[in-house]
Amino acid sequence: MIVKVVLFGTFRERLPRELRGRTTLELPEGSPLRAVLEHFDLPPNAACAVNGQLEPDRERILQDGDEIQVFRPAGGGNSSFTKRFCLCQQPRFPPV
After folding, report:
1. Residue 68: which H helix or E strand, with range?
2. Which of 2, 11, 20, 61 is 20 to 30 A from 33 (CA-CA)?
3. pLDDT digits over 25-51, tens only?
4. By the 8 A CB rule, do 37 and 46 touch?
5. Pairing of strands 67-71, 2-7
6. Residue extents of the structural domains in the chain
7. Is 24 exposed, middle or buried (0-12, 13-18, 19+ CB in 10 A)?
8. Chain CA centroid to CA 43, Å
């Protein structure tokens, strides 16, 4: 099967510059997402999306034609801010 792979950020350096982070990869039928990370020697904690949907399960079985996007995991920031302002169910500020 053939999957499309898009690498973002510094991961793009694993491909020739002219590919601009995009390539295809031939994998055996039934290959998991993990196989893409291993092929490009990417860290297991890299953030992945399959067909535009974030996918935390590295054992997800890929299908022919899937597009896999790989980027560095987001980190940093103040977790108390995130809990108070980003993950709350009710907005903390009135709409403008």
Report:
1. strand 67-71
2. 20
3. 999 999 999 999 999 999 989 999 999
4. yes
5. parallel
6. 2-86
7. exposed
8. 11
Distance from C-alpha of 18 to C-alpha of 60, rounded to nearest angstrom: 30
Paired tokens of 62: 């890929």
- What is this structure's pTM? 0.75
Collapsing DSSP states into helix, strand and coil, what is residue 86?
helix
CATH number 3.10.20.30 is the correct assignment for the domain at 2-86:
yes
For residue 30, count other CB atoms closer than 10 A to its CB. 10
Percent with pLDDT over 70 in the chain: 77
Give me the helices (H) in 1-96, please: 33-39, 79-81
What is the rounded distance in angstroms from the CA atom of residue 74 to the CA atom of residue 9? 12
- As given in the structure block, the two tokens for residue 10 are 């510094």
